[in-house]
Every structure is written in structure tokens, then in C-alpha cells.
Design brief:
With 397 residues, this protein is mainly α. The chain contains nine helices and no strands.
Length: 397
Amino acid sequence: MSKLKLDVIDVKAVKKELNQPDPNTVRVAPGDEKELESQADQYVDQLLNFTPEAMQEKEERKEAVESMGVELQKRAAKQSELLRQPIKNMAGKSGEGSDVANALIDLKVKVEDLDPGKFDLEPGWFARTLGRVPGVGSPLKRYFTKYESAQTVVGAVIRSLENGRDQLLRDNTTLIEDQKAMRESSIKLEKAVRLGQLIDQKLEYKLSREVTQEDPRHKFIQEELVFPLRQRIIDLQQQLAVNQQGVLAAEIIIRNNKELSRGVNRALNVTVTALEVGATVAIALANQKIVMDKVDTVSKATSDLIAGTASRLKTQGVQIQKQASSATLNMDSLKSAFADIQSAMDDLSTFRRNALPQMAGTILELDKLSKEAEKAVKRLEEGNKSKPTIQIDVDSR
């Protein structure tokens, strides 16, 4: 699986940027130094002002040294403890195993899986055959079916990224406030450490110059005051170091959270858009392929038509030339037709010659019949001219 890569934060550079002092060589501002010098003189005078035989006074001074900065240390330790739990939780969130980082990785893998460049969207003969099977479809259709099914997953990843980004921003708000409180405690711890160091220096000076070995207070001051004082200084230095580590850890978490938030925004604004663009381009390329196939088909059909026409022109041209170079009618058929016509004309001439005597006899017979008919007609006409002498009128009124 792909790894989420974040920019490596230079811890030393961050520490220098935060201007954190070395707990073992604490220095304070000149104004604070003068104030601490004055306080140290007062505390040293009070610590040395006791009667060697007065046990109560000794116990009070021992208690004063042993309790120096204890309350401040407790408050700082409490703040460190409060901050340690969010850091422990958010340290995991800021690394490669965090929810946000894993969501970014899942989104990257899903987008790469849907990359149109990985698919052959051109329908070959096998793909065309599968395209006719119900529920299978063309390569482009299968791709977008996969794309649509992945949209649900991508949507869930996006929601997870948005929720994770919002959580990181809320964590940063909490961390900034805790970090601010810890830095304030660190400043107080620095002053407490410096005050203890000044008291230690002044007690050493007193032991070497004023409270000699013969002074009954010397052993008590050295063993019961200076020794626990240095223990307290070391404890305060350690607490300061812990506080500084807390401030530094919080700063690193804050910066990593910001980097992750920017990564989420890039994923939402760029990666998802790239997915949409990739799908759109896949559609456009598929449409181009369809048009190209149609153009190729038309070109092939046109070429075939032209080739076929040329072939037929060649074949028919030869046939036409052959026909043009030969007689239009078949000579044998023409001769046979002329022979039949001549025979028919001869038969007609023979028929006419044979029919002439018969036709003459027919004319004579018709003439004779015509004369006899004429006589009959005349007798009829003469009969019609004679009227009856007696008429019977049946229409009298």
C-alpha cells in the first residue's frame, strides 16, 4: 500500500525557533536578574539567621529549602500530565497510522484504481460480444459502472477526511492553549531555577568567607541546606526540561496537524476533481473513438464502392467494345427470317392466283341474285299503291 509522506520537521530548528533555554544554563532577563538577586540576598539572610541549638529554627529552614518551588513544580507537572494524554492520542493521529492519513491513502489508492488510463475502453470483437450479454455491457459502460460504485466509497472517504480535518483543527486549538500555559509555567520555572542557583552561590560564598569550619552552623548549612537546595534545583531543572519537551511536542503536533489539514484540502480540491476530469476525458475519448470508427467504416465502404464500380466499368467496357465490334443482329437468324418472309409471299401469290376464278363465279351468282331481288321489290311496291274501296272507321266520334 502507498505510504503517506509528510515533510520531516527539524526538532532542533523548532526548539531554536521557540527560543527554549538549556535547563542547566538558565539565564533570565537583566531586570529579572536584579530582582532575583535581591530576593536571593533576603532568603540567604533568613536561612542563616538561626541559633544552632534551636531545633525548631533549623527545621523551619530545612522545610523552606526542601519546599522551594514545590507548588510551582506541581502545577507544571499537572499541566504536563494534562498535555501528555492529548499528545499520546494525537501523536498517532499525526503519523502514518492516523485516521486522516489512512483516509488520504485510501483515496489515493481508489483514484489510482479508477484511472481511465489503466482500462482498454476500445471495444474489440470480444468486448462487442460481451456487450450483447445482458448485465455486462461495453468496456466504457463497465468502467463507469465501476466508477459509480466507487463514488460511494469515495464519498465516504471524503466525509472521513472532512471530519478528521475538523478534529485536527479542534485538537490544535486545545494544544495551543495548553502550550501557552506550559510556556508561562516554563518562564516561572526558569526564574525559580535561577533563584535557587543564586541562593546556592550566595550560601557557598557565605560558607567560604563568613561561616567558617569552626562555626557550629557550617555543617548544618552545608548538609541540610545546600544539599537539599541543589536537589530542588535539579528537580526544577528536570521539570523545566519536561515542560520544554511538552511545548516542543505540542508544536510538532500542531505543525503536523496543519500539514495534514493542507493535505486534506489538496485531496478534496485536486484529487477528487482529477477523478471527475479523468472520467470526463474517458467519455470524450470514447466518443472520439466511436466517431473515428464511423469515419473508418464510411471510408472503407466508399473505397469498396469505388473499387467495385471501377471493376464493373472495366468488365462492362470490354463487353461494350466487343458488342460494338460485332454485328448487332445474328446473321443466321436474319437469313432464316428473310427466307420465311419470301416463302410467305410466294404462298400469298399462289393463293391469289388460285382464288381469281372462284371470285369471278361468285360475282356472277351475286349479280343474278341481285336481279331477282330487284324484281321482288318492284312487285311489293306495286301492291302497296292499290287502296281498299271499303274502309271501316273504328274511330268515329
